[in-house]
Each structure stands twice: as structure tokens, then as C-alpha cells.
């Protein structure tokens, strides 16, 4: 049996705000966001593009990461998106 993969993603909206979410199917979830059915937030703020994606094999790890990123400041999210977060 194949194991599920889980994804944590960040969407940049047209107003330049960020939305963080989690899914097992990034393509399907993106289509939901574009159609206005993805979340109340992206229905209101209109998604522009996916700017970040991480893959997990364990659901709970993905959930914890989603919550962690949601609690971050905009600046910290932008460092993660740009790759600066991992530079020492």
C-alpha cells in the first residue's frame, strides 16, 4: 500500500497577504481556492499563486507545521518563502 503524502503550502493573495494551508492533493486544493471554495479567507482575498510547498509523510507533522507557520509574522513567512530561513 502506498503511503499518503501531505503538503503544507503558502498562497500569496492578490492583496499580497498570505494564506497557509494543508492538503493531500495540492493541485485539487489549488483549484478549490481558485473557485472560491477553498477557504473563507481565499474566497475574500483571491489567491494569486502558491509561493511555498513542503511535503510530509506523517499527517500530524504536517498539521503541526501548518499551525506553526500560521503563527509566524509576515517577515518570518517571507524569509521561509525566499529560502533565507535556512541560511546560517
UniProtKB/TrEMBL annotation:
Pfam families: GIY-YIG (PF01541)
Highest taxon listed in the record's lineage: Bacteria
Gene3D superfamilies hit by this protein: GIY-YIG endonuclease (3.40.1440.10)
Family listed: Belongs to the UPF0213 family.
Protein name (Swiss-Prot/TrEMBL): GIY-YIG domain-containing protein
Residue ranges constituting the GIY-YIG domain according to the UniProt record: 4-79
Amino acid at each position: 500500500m502506498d503511503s499518503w503524502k501531505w503538503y503544507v503550502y503558502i498562497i500569496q493573495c492578490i492583496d499580497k497577504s498570505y494564506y497557509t494551508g494543508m492538503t493531500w492533493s495540492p493541485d485539487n486544493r489549488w483549484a478549490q481556492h481558485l473557485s472560491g471554495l477553498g477557504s473563507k479567507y481565499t474566497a475574500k482575498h483571491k489567491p494569486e499563486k502558491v509561493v511555498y510547498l513542503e511535503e510530509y509523510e506523517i499527517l500530524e507533522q504536517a498539521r503541526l507545521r501548518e499551525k506553526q507557520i500560521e503563527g509566524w509574522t509576515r517577515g518570518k513567512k517571507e524569509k521561509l518563502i525566499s529560502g533565507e530561513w535556512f541560511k546560517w
